[in-house]
User: Fold this.
Amino acid sequence: MTWTAADWRFLRAPLLTLLAVLLLGAAMVFLSHQWLDQSRGVLKQQQDALQEARNRFHKSGDEKERILRYRGAFLALQQRGLIGEEQRINWVDALRAASLQLKMFGINYQIEAQQAYQSPAITDAGPYRLRQSVMKINMGLLHEEDLPRFMTTLASLEAGFFIIRECDLQRQGSARSEVVGVQPHLNTECSLAWLTMSEGKAGEPRP
Assistant:
């Protein structure tokens, strides 16, 4: 069959219409796929946000339960000076009070700068960090039993939590003293670590 120019002129309009319909259909299919992909992405984001909200809700419930469960112990430790900022004035007052209570020969002390304290007993303290302030004390003793009595009395005053790092006992010289009255027979130098827990600072590594 031979197509004449008149035939092409007659079919040009329907063919152009068909081409336009095909192009429009292809565009609609492409846009439908695009819209479907976007809808799936939005749905995935919403599902993730919903799951995250559920997780936060359950986590907040667990945290609230833990807070209520351990609130009493937390407040007790806070009252004792373990949780919070270091209480150096309380420590010094307790030293003097213990010395006076036991009628000792006075006490000298020196407190070093606070630093991190690592303990295998604490594996997860949450946002809190355990720190220590090393205190070196020097005092005279009448006899050896005065040292454990002093440490027991110091702990009973509940000015904070401390651990004894080391103690060194030395006997005083035997030369006669011109000072009248009872004199110490021993001298002790001890190193104590006062412990505190407070929230970690920005950028501070976890233990």
Summary: The two ends are 90 Å apart (CA to CA). Residues 5-80 form the longest helix (76 residues).
